[in-house]
Amino acid sequence: MRDVAIIGVGMTKFGELWEQNIRDMFAEAALKAMENANVEKIDALYVGAMSSGLYAFQEHLGSLMADYIGQVGVPAVRIESACSSGGQAVRMGFLDVASGMHDIVLVGGVEKMWDVEDGTFVLATASDQEYEAYNGVTFPGLYAMIARAYMEKYGLTREELAQVPIKNHKHAVNNPNAQYPFEIDLKTVLNSSMVADPLRLMDCSPITDGAACIILCPLDRAKEFTDKYVKIRGVGAASGPIALHDHKDLTRLEAVFLAGQRAYNMAGVTPNDINFVEVHDCFSIAEIVVAEELGFFEYGKGGKAIAEGQGTYGGKIVINPSGGLKAKGHPVGATGVAQIIEAYYQLTNQAGKRQVQNARIGMTQNMGGSGGSCVVHILEGM
Ligand code: COA
Prior knowledge:
The chain is α/β, with parallel strands linked by helices. The chain is about 35% helix and about 20% strand. It has 14 helices and twelve strands. The strands form two sheets. It has a ten-stranded mixed beta sheet with strand order 3-2-4-7-1-8-12-11-9-10, sandwiched between helices. Bound molecules: coenzyme A (COA).
């Protein structure tokens, strides 16, 4: 396999983008990425999107986007894996370049979530319809069960859990693309409206419009285009049980563990080598469980460690310097690509006030549903 580099990135602001439809958002991100990478022509295109059919009544995104950004003729497909669609699209683009099939590959993710009235229903189509959604359980309810099980097993308090969104909102203040770039305090979290006990509004990632794109090429060609590039050093993906009741232990997300191990093995690094990580904090409890599965904390100790400041600047590892899904926003199909963009900014020293000092190796973790799919990337600055 050839080594693969990221040579340019582009994204929209995340939030309520009433003036842009799905193709406008994608085109903005894609054209910014191409300009950033100094490329005018691409060889292939991958688009991650979870449910463009139900959210924007538009399928066939690969060809639509290739045409709309002036690249008609290239092979172009959409990749779907629920909320991990963006990260999985990056993996497909990586494989395409690594295999030698194509040289310049555009990978993007997009979701237009605000145009439908009941976005929660659309999201629930990524759960097990017959056992979960038909019985009225949506994702806040599923993650609430994980939170209950974790709090009971490990003694995590409601106040400690609240420290996850408090930290992520603090990080987002320095992210100009974030949906909610403001600080919140303990009172705000504990007084926010109950969504699914024990999870409140401030424990939940929001409904978000947005798009994010990157350009990949073989590492040995990167310098032809730019002096700001990063290497994709490890890639790991895994599937897990789609229904929560099929997990052996509600406090574990085994697909995250498997994907993490595969990425660590490929990259030849351990959790101690990682300077920062962008994790899939769709709900506050998810960040804790994921950080444990990736080996940053022992099982049962991640919640308290993050509450004590081990997941922020000056702690053990900076988790979600971008603000994470909670505060940066979560346009589901775009999220995995946006995580890679944050890692690119950090590793090329372009993250401004949220820069992690001396960042050399970063990780991204993107997952679908309640752990039904996961993809992890390890990136290295050059
Ligand atoms: N964090 C912070 N503020 C939020 C927010 C969030 N997650 N969600 C909404 N808000 C704000 C809105 O901006 C709005 O503020 P305003 O009154 O000043 O305009 C207010 O809270 C109410 O917003 P509204 O859209 O009416 O909230 P809602 O009750 O319809 O939706 C959730 C809130 C949490 C139910 C919804 O965001 C949700 O379903 N999130 C989970 C998404 C999800 O499952 N993703 C996939 C994960 S696997």
